[in-house]
Structures are given as C-alpha cells and as structure tokens.
Design goal:
Blueprint lengths: L1 E10 L3 E10 L15 E2 L6 H8 L6 E11 L24 E12 L4 H9 L7 E3 L1 H18 L3 E11 L7 E11 L3 H12 L14 H20 L18 H7 L12 H16 L8 E8 L18 E9 L6 E3 H5 L12 H15 L4 H4 L6 E4 L1 H17 L3 E3 L10 E9 L14 E10 L2 E2 L2 H8 L5 E4 L2 E4 L2 H14 L1 E5 H9 L11 E6 L1 H7 L3 H4 L15 H15 L4 E3 L7 H19 L10 E5 L4 H11 L5 E3 L8 H9 L3 E5 H6 L1 H4 L3 E2 L1 E5 L10 H6 L3 E2 L2 E4 L8 H11 L7 H14 L3 H11 L3 E2 L15 E8 L3 H19 L3 H20 L1 H5 L10 H15 L4 E5 L2 H15 L3 E4 L5 H12 L6 E5 H4 L10 E4 L6 H8 L11 E8 L3 H11 L4 H4 L12 H8 L9
Helix pairs in contact: 3-5, 4-5, 17-18, 18-19, 25-26, 27-28
InterPro entries: DUF3670 (IPR022138), Helicase_ATP-bd (IPR014001), Helicase_C-like (IPR001650), P-loop_NTPase (IPR027417), SNF2-like_sf (IPR038718), SNF2/RAD54-like_C (IPR049730), SNF2_N (IPR000330)
Keywords: ATP-binding, Helicase, Hydrolase, Nucleotide-binding
Protein name: Superfamily II DNA or RNA helicase, SNF2 family
Length: about 1050
C-alpha cells in the first residue's frame, strides 16, 4: 500500500505550493547507508513515475526532489501512523530524531490543488492509497477556503514578488501580480488560528524554519485566489466605448488581472507601489487589529424582578451589552471589563496594558457601531445599556457589521431561531378511514387557518398584544418574538377570506412543504397539522399508527414487529401514490420488507381481478450488480410465488420478447448500468413500482446514471438506502426528487432554502424545517433504536450472495477443466489430494483473481465478492460498527489488510497463525479498546478459538470453511459473554459456484451436520466424479457485468 503525504513548499513567485510524495510498504525499510551527516535517499519513497500515476496527470505539476526532515532512526525514517505492514518492523531501543532525506516530490500549484485532491479522495484509484494526516489537513484548508469564498470573505490585492530571470539564474527580477486573499475576522480568524495550531508536523517537513502561520495562511490565500478566479467571469469591467488606449491606467490593468489564469499586472513597480498605497486604507478599513486581544461584545437578556417578564414590560426593560477581551494567543482566556479596571497588575503576564487595549478595541468598534459612544462616556466603561428597540437594532443589523470588522459578538441563544408570526393550517380528511376512503391526492380535507407563532396558534388577546406592541421584540409564552405589525395585518386580511373550507389532500401536502414562492399566502406557513391518518402521515408517525398489513400466507418469513410496520407504511404510501425512502440500518431487513410489499400487493391484485386477464405491469427493481444474486436468492426463499425476471447480461430480452417476458413477471431485477444503457426500452413501461436498492447510487443529480434513472415511470417510487445523506444535502435532494419529483423544489431553490443555511451557517431552524418536510416520506430505524431493539435476535445470520466478474469466471472455468481432467485419471490418496487442491483454487478464484495468480497486482475492482464486501464495509463503518473478517487463507488476509486500510482510511488489525503469542495479546488488547481499529482481519484457524473480541458486532466469513462447527467457533469470538450488542454474521456465497452448492448441501442436512460433515473438507473428497463435476461446474447465471 501507499501512504500519501503533503508538505508546504514556499515559492517566491506564487506563494505556497503543495508537495505530494508517498511511501510504499513493499519497498525495503532501511537505507544502505548509515551516514547521518549527509542527505540520503528515502528508502521506501515512491518514485516520481509511480507518484504521477497515483495523483493523476496534472498540467501544472512539476517533478522535483526535496529534502525533508522526518522522524527517523539511524538507517530509516519511521513509519507514518497510516502505514500498515503485515510484518511489523523491529522495535528499536534508540530514540528517534529528525534527519534529512531526499524524497521525490510532485510540486502542485494551488490552482491545481482541487482537482488533485478530488482524484485522491474520490476513491477512483485502482491502487491502494491511504492519505496521511497532512493530506487531510490540506483538504480541510480547501474546504475552509471554499466556505470563505461562498461568503465573499476575500479581498483583491496587488503584490510585488521576486522572480528568477529565465536567462540568468543568479538574477532575480520583480513582477507585479493581482491576487485575491482571505479577509478573515471574528469567527473566521479564530478558525484560521485553529488551523495554524493543528498543522501536522510533516506538513512543514520541507520548510521547518518557516513560521506555521505563514505556511497555512499562504496556502489558504492561494486556494482562495484559484477559487475566485474559477468562479468569476473573464472580465469584470464593462466594454470600453471607443478605441482602447495603448496604455491603460494602472488600476484598470490591475483590475483586469483579477480574473482569468494570468495574475501578472503589466505595470511598472513604481506604479504598483503607488497603487498599493492607494488600496491600503481601503483594505485596512474594518480589518482585524493585530493586537494581543480581541474585543468581545456579549448581549444579555433582560432580567426583570420576580424572574418573569410581562408583554407590557418588554418595551421598558433594559438590555446589557457586556465588554470583554479574549486573548489571541490563548482563545480559552476571556476576561470581562470589570476585571480589567480592577486589575492589580496580575493580567500583565498575558496582556500588556489591558486597559489601553480595551479602550482601543472599543474605539475601533465604535467606528462600526456608533451607539457604543454612550457606553464610552464613563471613565471605566464596562457595558452599554440598551432599550428593547436598540437591542433589536443591534441583533438585526449592528452585530453582523461588528463581526465582519473582527469583533466577536455573542448573542442570546434564541436569536436566529426566533419564531415569526405566520399561518397555521389545520386539516381533517373528509374520509376518516384510509382503508375505505378514496385513497389518493384527490381526496378532500376540511381546513381552517389561524395566525401562529411557530406551531402555536395565537389567541385574539395575543394578536391584539402584538398589534399594539411598542417595541419590535415582545416576550410571549416565555420566548421573544419579532413583531412586524405589517405581517400581522396581512395575515388578518388573509383570514377574512380564507378562514375555513375544503381543499384536496394534495394541496394540504403541498402547503406542508412550506415553500413561500410556491404558495399563494401572504405569510410563511409555520405549521400544518391534520387529524386522523393524514396527521399521522404529516408528523411522521404513520408507521406506528396505521393499521397493520399482513403479508399473504405463502410468504415464507415471519416479519418482526418493526418490519411489519415498515411493510404497512410502504403499502400505505403506495396506495396514496406517494414515494418513500426506507432508510433502515444495514441488517434490519430492507430486502424482506420490500419483498413482503411485493407479495402483498400481488396477492391483493390477484384477489381483486381475474388472474387470466390481469395485465398489471410488474415492479422494476434496480440494484448494483453485486446484489442481483442476493435479490434472486431472497425472493426465492421468502416469496417463491413472485415471478422474477432478471433483466441483465447479453442474453436479456429486447423488444417483443421483452414485452412477452414482462407479461409473465411480477418483479423485474436489473442493474443501474443496464438500466442506464437501456433507458429507452425501460422508460416506455408504466411500472407499478420502481425501486432503487442502494439508492445512494443516484446521489449525484448530474451523473448520466441519475439522469437516466429519473426518466423511469412508476406508480410509486421507493428508495432503499442505509445512508440517505453521506456528505452533502444535495444527495438528499437527488434521492427525494426521484421518489417524489418536485417535492423539494428545484436544485437552485433547495440550495438557497436549505443547503447554504444548514451547511454554511449551521442554521438549526432550517434543519428543523427540512426534517419536518421530509419526515413523512422517510422511515429510518437504527439498530440502537429503543423501539426496535427488543425485536432483534441476539445473533442475525445473513447469507450474502454475489456474482463473479468475467475475469473470475474465466479463471474458474479454466481451473475446473484442468482439475477435473486430472481427477478423472487419479485414484486413492492422489485423487483426494487433487479434489482438495481444486477446492482451494476455486475458493481463491472466488476471492480474487490475484489470490490465485499471486501476481502482485492491485486487488481493487476485479472481484465480485470484494466489490460487495466493500459496499457492506462502507455502510457498516458509517454506522459506527466494528468488524471481524475471517478468511482461511493467510495470503489473502495479507492482501486485504493494506487494501482495506487504504480504501476506508482506517487502521486494520491482522492476526495469523504465525503471529507470536506476545504480539497476539497486544493486537487483541488494542482492538478491544474503544478507539481501537475498526476492522480486524483474522485467519480462520488463528482466530477461531481462545479469543474474546466483543468490541466487534459484525462478523464476515469471506471464504467458507465447509465445517459449520469451525465457522461457529469463529463467530463466537464476537458473540459471547460480554457482548452488549446484537451481532450480525455474514457468509459470502457466489451464485452458480461451488460455494452456493455446498451451502445448499449443508442447509439440507443442517440438523445432522455434525454427523455428516467431518473435520475440515475431507468429506467432499469422497464424492463421485460426476457428483464432483456437478458441484464444481460454473452455471450460466454466475457472471456479473
């Protein structure tokens, strides 16, 4: 595996570049030279050619060796924490020191950084690359830079830089450049300070003498400059009228250079210096003081006598704006102005002349907030008293300006979530029983409107109090409310004409979405409530309250109570024509709930119609290729009456043959890739239901797959996913817009209403509103949910089916052909040995082609089993679970460990039979710690007995040891005394391979397994040649795309 690092490389001309370099766990550990006084080549650094392949081809990247100071022993740098070696390095008793090493580095300018980071962190590499802490640090700087640009916290500047002369390397000339830089004040400055302090030491390995702040903030400026140039149009100035002069004014030339790729300003250095002098006062206006302390203004709520505040008191009370100072060197140190004025000299240890600093900071803040003058009239100012009206002005206007000028402003916690006067709708379906009513959005509901604050309707007395309030803030029902008499009057005028009546249920649901641009109401709708089943739907409790739907008698699974509620919820929404997102944790049975829905819907349809003439369209289910076999197997197991059509592979039916196949099918299963290719064929069908399994596949609305899938037509659309939001809210929009098109508005409106307020400003009120809007359509249960935990068994066993890749299938058939020829010509001990050898080789093929070939090739993207395993691991780790992964092959375990560490950027423990007793104890102890590795790979026999690994609650058997007792012993490492959580056990089974056939044999004789099955796999060697051929031959349905 490779560990990828980043280091800062100062550049006189361009600021701070990034140096990317990597270490390879497969290269020799030690340098051949022990001379510590000279710079030696890093022994396991990746050469630049391989480094270029890891990073992707970047036009601006340059190959350059760099001398890096790294923690080292005498002959070798220390391994970084991210490095995973199967055989740990010998421990040394000598103390490490910083030594210089020559390292191949790719130098990447800030303008190229985003594309390189996306390539590295986007999980597209075919090789195993694990980013080190320094790479994650650079990614965090990039994210912070994006947020600053989003909020326009940038300034244009003019700088004069040195540049090496191309004709004479000893000569440096000057160059004028237009650059954008960060304008950080207040909370942004605090974040910048935190980023400087948390810099990983390796990030400054190439420039140890350069101050940390210079490296961090220099790179941040470079990132911001590149982002702004990418977003701005080519020219900010309007076209000139008339002829363009041969020489432009210096300011205009500089302005033109603020956009585009070329930052050079074609003016003389003297003109540039004059321009800089002219810009300087503007840049410094409101900029944060570099002094030792920052002013903090804290607004406190009024504290009336008796502890309560009547509505009539609100205009008369006094608010208090406290003055404080926060140390810039120690952000946790804050003192109030009273202590400053009472200081006996004890504050001098961290702040020189604190009184003068306080007065200077207050004077600077007064330029932004003139009302501070009243507080400065005292000889020793400590606070400013404000009326309610003045406090509202401070909250609504002044606080923002002060924060932008670098003053820290602390506001009451309720500000920003202050409820406003709006409209509340109460609806009652005219048909109270959804089982008998005209189900659908065309049903009617009676309604009445009322003025409300948040969810609470206002009484006549409260409305009057608001109308006649003398201040813009009024306290009502224990909370402060912003008063806007004009809003109240508009609301009352609306009520005169719309107080009550009837409307379609579909309109009630639209109103519940609360998009003011889509509604013909004068005020924002703050609450939509309803009675009966409609109320249960809107408040997200329908799954708990609606009447339970039982699957048909021929459905061969007993649903757990929470699964029965999930079935009833899906069925309920389906008959309303509403899409749904079933977002249960992995392992809670989304598959069986969907199959129960299909069986129930089909049984109902057949009961209501003549089966001979029924022409209802089937359901279309899309899933990743690795899950097709799982759906087939589960459908055959639980719902054998469902007629399944797998629309997949080169032999799939087309045209009339497809139509004929649909007429004989209840459930059509296909892959996202197939559906995307055949969208013209699939979109012409009016599917009764379209279901997306692993629906996060369509999280990117701009991908070609998502665009194709959105063209499918279905009476109901369902998304199955354990992670409806992985990184960004835009992913939620994409999934929700598929199941209920238009529900969250256009992407642009959704970004404006929710994404920016929540992701950029952490707006809790908007987050609450989004949850309220989406909760009727999302059902999510977790394994720790108290409402379902008692429904779960102590141990859940899951058979995980997968298909081979084409490469695996080809190797599998070659092995069978070769080995069966040899087996037919052998007998006795030789035959038994050949059978066991064939079993071993086929298991290796099922694991991964590289496992059989031992060619040292990368193992990503070539194995159906590994692909499905990675999907499971991704969801498992996202849920905070820890996993034991058993394999009977130590060489496969050694291949998996670095791959998993790189793939999921996490530590991976490994235990094999060769592990020493002392090392074994250390590994187990480390894994059992709360912050231990998330993944533990064990060879089946080494980890099968004598271990207590209750930190894990997930067990995966990657390859099968065809003896149930051995597998159960391994499983019991997690499922044993001391385990406080439910344990999920997964056993991988390749469709159409020996894994599937041997599993079927064991299932048939489960209760006699201990008698029928001997130790290991020797019982298989006694099978006849014909039976063995049937067992090993690959079936046609074994191969995926």
């Amino acid at each position: 595996m490779y560990v990828l690092h980043a280091c800062a490389l100062p550049d006189a001309q361009y600021g701070i570049d990034i140096g990317m370099w990597a270490e390879d766990s497969a290269l020799p550990v030690s340098s051949p030279s022990a001379a510590v006084r000279q710079v030696r080549d890093h022994p396991f650094a990746v050469p630049t050619d391989s480094l270029a392949d890891i990073l992707g081809r970047s036009e601006g990247a340059r190959r350059t060796p760099q001398t890096l100071l790294l923690p080292s022993l005498q002959r070798s740098p220390l391994d970084p924490p991210e490095m995973v070696r199967i055989q740990p390095r010998r421990r040394s008793s000598s103390a490490p020191s910083l030594l210089p090493w020559s390292v191949p580095v790719m130098r990447i300018p800030a303008s190229e950084l985003s594309s390189v980071l996306d390539s590295i962190l986007g999980d597209q590499s075919e090789v195993d690359v694990r980013p080190a802490a320094s790479v994650h640090y650079v990614a965090e700087l990039r994210r912070h830079g994006e947020m600053l640009v989003d909020r326009s916290r940038v300034l244009p500047t003019c700088v004069i830089v040195g540049r090496d002369d191309e004709d004479d390397n000893d000569t440096t000339t000057t160059e004028v450049q237009a650059r954008w830089r960060v304008f950080a004040t207040g909370a942004d400055a605090v974040t910048n300070h935190g980023l400087v302090q948390t810099m990983p030491p390796s990030f400054r390995a190439a420039a140890p003498e350069t101050p940390q702040a210079e490296l961090t903030l220099g790179l941040l400026d470079g990132v911001v400059d590149a982002l702004v140039r990418r977003r701005l149009p080519a020219n900010l100035l309007a076209p000139r009228r008339g002829r363009r002069p041969s020489t432009l004014p210096a300011a205009e030339t500089w302005f033109e250079s603020l956009t585009g790729d070329d930052a050079r300003v074609d003016i003389a250095p003297a003109a540039a210096e004059e321009l800089i002098r002219e810009l300087d006062p503007w840049v410094r206006e409101g900029a944060e003081s570099p002094g030792p302390a920052q002013l903090v203004l804290r607004l406190r709520d009024p504290e009336p006598e008796g502890g309560t505040l009547t509505e009539s008191d609100a205009a008369e009370v006094r608010w208090h704006l406290d003055f404080l100072l926060r140390s810039r060197s120690d952000q946790s140190l804050v003192i109030d102005a009273f202590r400053v004025w009472d200081d006996d000299g004890s504050l001098a240890r961290w702040l020189d002349k604190p009184r003068e600093v306080l007065l200077a900071e207050l004077a600077r803040a007064q330029r932004v907030y003139p009302d501070l003058e009243a507080g400065l009239r005292r000889a020793e100012p400590t606070e400013l008293e404000l009326s309610t009206s003045a406090a509202f002005d401070f909250l609504n206007t002044a606080a923002t300006g002060l924060a932008e000028a670098g003053v820290e402003v602390q506001l009451p916690s309720w500000w920003g979530t202050t409820p406003k006067v709006g409209l509340k709708l109460h609806a009652t379906p005219t048909d109270g029983d959804p089982q008998e009513a005209k189900i659908g959005r065309d049903g009617l509901a009676s309604f009445d409107w009322a003025l409300a604050v948040g969810d609470h309707g206002l009484s006549d007395d409260e409305i009057a109090a608001l109308i006649f309030a003398k201040a813009p803030l009024v306290q009502m029902r224990g909370q402060w409310i912003v008063v806007d008499q004009e809003r109240i009057r508009r609301g009352l005028d609306f009520l005169k004409n719309h107080e009550e009546g009837q409307m379609p249920i579909s309109e009630v649901m639209t109103l519940a979405l609360g998009d003011p641009e889509e509604l013909e109401t004068p005020l924002e709708i703050t609450s939509v409530e309803a009675d009966g089943w409609l109320g249960d739907l809107l408040d997200g409790t329908a799954a708990q309250t609606i009447e339970t739907v039982d699957p048909p008698e021929d459905f061969r699974a007993t649903l757990r109570p929470y699964q029965a509620r999930g079935l009833s919820w899906l069925d309920f929404l389906g008959r309303l024509g509403i899409g749904a997102v079933l977002a249960d944790d992995m392992g809670l049975g989304k598959t069986v709930q969907l199959l129960a829905l299909e069986a129930t819907a089909r049984a109902r349809a057949y009961a209501a119609a003549d089966p001979d003439t029924m022409t209802s369209a089937p359901t279309l289910l899309l899933c990743p290729m690795s899950l097709i076999g799982n759906w087939e197997a589960e459908a055959a197991r639980f719902a054998p009456s469902l007629r399944i059509l797998v629309y997949y592979g080169s032999a799939r039916p087309r045209g009339d043959a497809f139509d004929a196949a649909l007429a004989e099918s209840d459930l059509v299963i296909t892959t996202y890739a197939t559906a995307s290719r055949d969208i013209a064929e699939l979109e012409r069908i009016g599917w009764v239901r379209v279901v997306l399994d692993e629906a996060q596949v369509i999280k990117n609305r701009l991908s070609q797959t998502t665009k194709a899938i959105r063209r499918l037509n279905g009476g109901q659309k369902i998304a199955l996913t354990g992670t409806p939001v992985e990184n960004r809210l835009s992913e939620l929009w994409s999934i929700m817009d598929f199941v209920n098109p238009g529900m969250l508005g256009t992407p642009e409106k959704f970004r404006e209403r929710f994404v920016r307020p929540i992701e950029v400003r952490a707006d809790e009120e908007r987050a609450h509103r989004l949850r309220r809007i989406t909760r009727p359509y999302i059902l999510r249960r977790t394994k720790t949910d108290p409402r379902i935990i008692d429904d779960l068994p102590e141990k859940i066993e899951i058979k995980q089916h997968y298909r081979l890749t084409v490469e695996q299938a080809s190797l599998y058939q070659s092995v069978v052909a070769e080995m069966m020829g040899r087996i037919e010509e052998s007998s006795g001990i030789e035959r038994r040995g050949l059978v066991l050898a064939a079993m071993t080789k086929l298991k290796q093929v099922c694991n991964h082609p590289a496992h059989l070939l031992h060619d040292g090739s990368a193992i990503g993207q070539r194995s159906g089993k590994l692909e499905r395993f990675e999907e499971i691991m991704s969801e498992t780790l996202a849920e905070g679970d820890r996993v034991l992964c058993f394999t009977q092959f130590t060489d496969f375990g050694e291949m998996l460990v670095p791959h998993l560490a790189a793939k999921f950027d996490t530590d991976v423990a490994y235990l094999a039979g060769s592990t020493s007793k002392q090392r074994r104890t250390e590994i187990v102890k480390d894994f059992q710690e709360p912050d231990g590795p998330k993944i533990f790979v064990l060879s089946l026999k080494a980890g099968g007995t004598g271990l207590n690994l209750t930190a894990a609650n997930q067990v995966v058997h990657l390859d099968r040891w065809w003896n149930p007792a051995v597998e159960n012993q391994a499983t019991d490492r997690a499922f044993r005394i001391g385990q406080k959580r439910r344990v999920q056990v997964r056993k991988f089974i390749g469709i159409g391979t020996l894994e599937e056939r041997i599993d079927a044999i064991l299932e048939e004789k489960k209760e006699l397994a201990d008698m029928v099955v001997g130790e290991g796999e020797s019982w298989l060697t006694e099978m006849s040649t014909d039976s063995l051929r049937d067992l090993l031959t690959l079936s046609k349905d074994a191969v995926g795309e």
